[in-house]
Amino acid sequence: MKKLVSAGEILVEIMAERIGQSFLEPGPLLGPYPSGAPAIFIGQAAALGQPAGLIGAVGDDDFGRLNIERLRTLGADVSAIAVHTGHATGTAFVTYRADASRHFVFNIRNSAAGLIETNAAATKLLAGADHVHVMGSSLFSDRAIAVALSAIETVKAKGGTVSFDPNIRREIMQASGMRAALDQVLARADIFLPSGEELFLFSSAKDEKGAVDELLARGVSCIVLKKGAAGAAYHDRHGVIASSGFAVDEVDPTGAGDCFGAAFVSFWLRGTAPAEALRIANACGALAVTRKGPMEGIFPLETVEAFIATGKSAQ
Ligand code: ATP
Ligand code: MG
Predict the structure, then answer these.
(1) Across the chain, what does the average pLDDT equal?
(2) Ligand 1 pocket: which residues have CB below 6 Å?
(3) How far apart (Å, rounded) are the C-alpha atoms in residues 270 and 88?
(4) 155, burial (CB in 10 Å: exposed 0-12, middle 13-18, buried 19+)
(5) Rounded to an integer, what distance in angstroms lies between the CA atom of residue 202 and that of residue 1?
(6) Nearest Cα to 8, choosing from 172, 155, 130?
(7) Given this structure, which CATH class describes domain 4-310?
(8) Three-state SS for 14?
């Protein structure tokens, strides 16, 4: 089976308990939950049985141990997660507003996560990789950008493939070279997985079809547009396949896009037809939102298949 690798932020997430809760005053919190978009992605891929490993860094502390242990339990290769003394594991505090938008307080660049590098363990992991997945949120510093771009080059040089989810988090994406890096990653991507408005960050077109056509003409093989509770649409040069989501009670949307992407990419790598890969991805995204905490809604393939067999389509 093909092995997939991602590189980037490994964090714990700490969540405000109440909707609309402000971080300007003390209040009840939930967590720590293991998190970080590439960690969620790799954890979900591993849970589906895909060989998957992560390049990143944590502190020599309980938050770091929580993350490594969770990824190991899910079956991921954690050999390229560096453990640093002197820096704490990265954190993300999140509160949900009444309009369903999210407000984050991140500590990434100045945490152990900021020490990410292509060290010997990362080089070894990449030597065995067939595919690299890049999250836009992982391009949080010049150093992190260098790691992502070098991972892409290594895997592409031996005929491997690349997927890219912009996963825009305005709070963290202040690296000077970030915009150029987003464009560079997209230019190397075989699979592009934007959600909502992210599609239009990379195109001058005003509608979905126009933007998709422009990106396909620029060499992206396929575009998978995530649409929250409405499911997703897959586009390639043959046309579009729309797939409605599954009806679930959403308790926490964070992580849905990462679980969706991991499932789609894992099944794409196995040669599964796009319509079927989309169905499994929709199921993983739906299951992800049924649990508080971004990695708590990661389930093994058997559970996902049982959910598909019995789950209610959103339409
Ligand atoms: P993230 O918050 O992880 O960045 P995203 O914006 O990248 O998420 P979404 O479109 O929110 O991605 O969700 C990804 C997928 O998860 C959707 O395409 C859908 O399959 C599934 N999903 C998300 N929310 C729901 C929901 N409320 N009900 C059912 N399925 C959902
Ligand atoms: Mg996302």
Answers:
(1) 95
(2) 167, 195, 226-229, 231-232, 245-246, 248, 250, 253-258, 260, 282, 285-286, 289
(3) 37
(4) buried
(5) 32
(6) 172
(7) alpha beta
(8) strand
